Amino acid sequence: MYPRLLTTPYFTIHTFGVLLAAAYLTALWWLTRGARRANLDPDEVTSLGMWAIVGGLVGAKLLLLFRSIGELHATAADVWSFVTSAGDFYGGFIGGLVASALFFWKHPDLRYWAVADLCAPAIALGQAIGRIGCLMAGDDYGRPTNLPWGVTFTDPDAATIGGAPLGVRLHPVQLYESLVCLVLFVVLERIARRKHRDGDVIIAYTALYAAARFVLEFFRGDADRGFVFGGALSTSQFIAIVMFCLAAVAWASRRTERTPVGHRTRSRG
What we know:
Layout: E1 4-7, E2 12-14, H1 15-37, H2 42-68, H3 76-84, H4 89-106, H5 112-137, E3 151-152, H6 156-162, E4 169-170, H7 173-193, H8 200-216, E5 227-228, E6 233-234, H9 235-254
Antiparallel strand pairs: 1-2, 3-4, 5-6
Helix pairs in contact: 1-2, 1-5, 2-4, 5-7, 5-8, 7-8, 8-9
């Protein structure tokens, strides 16, 4: 793969960084597009997106630090790896939720569930792009496999930057997740275009992604992603179970509401 797009004596442009930026910008573009379609203030929704991005970056780093605190030895390599890593997705998701909650607290005129529904497809679309960046960098790599579509990393930077083993055929789990998120994006858009209650789309995203991520973790080969219960579950699998249960509770509790509001999301409220 190509971890570095451009290397000069003064700076290096990493492929992962470019695709991560593309993921954020594409998600933000789709979010503002949805806001205009729903007759919401695109400037306010753009501000929400920026809050969520910052919260996501901070949350991703914090969860990465939490799950690897016992393995860090304050060496230059460890510090550099922490600084250059994007962090853990679920940490970013939770951090984005916290930042979004603060934004809604400051802007009570925006309906939380209605705008959250606009965010769900945008998040999935961004993930589909961002995971390709992980593949380019040799990050979040898969288990060894003999399947014909396995990928073999040969660039030394893939081992240095992403930690991928060189010369070993691996599951392209990054592409698996990218494809899953692309399908999830299409499914969420179909749900959004039908009649639904405010909150149905973001709840569907949370549940469907949690189920998919739980399965995808079995194909991951990077041992530094963290484990719980003596290694029975990865950190992300544990969080996926929690998020799926929360989504199920939210969906069940909202079934008692009688009036679908699929078309009411087009007003500011």
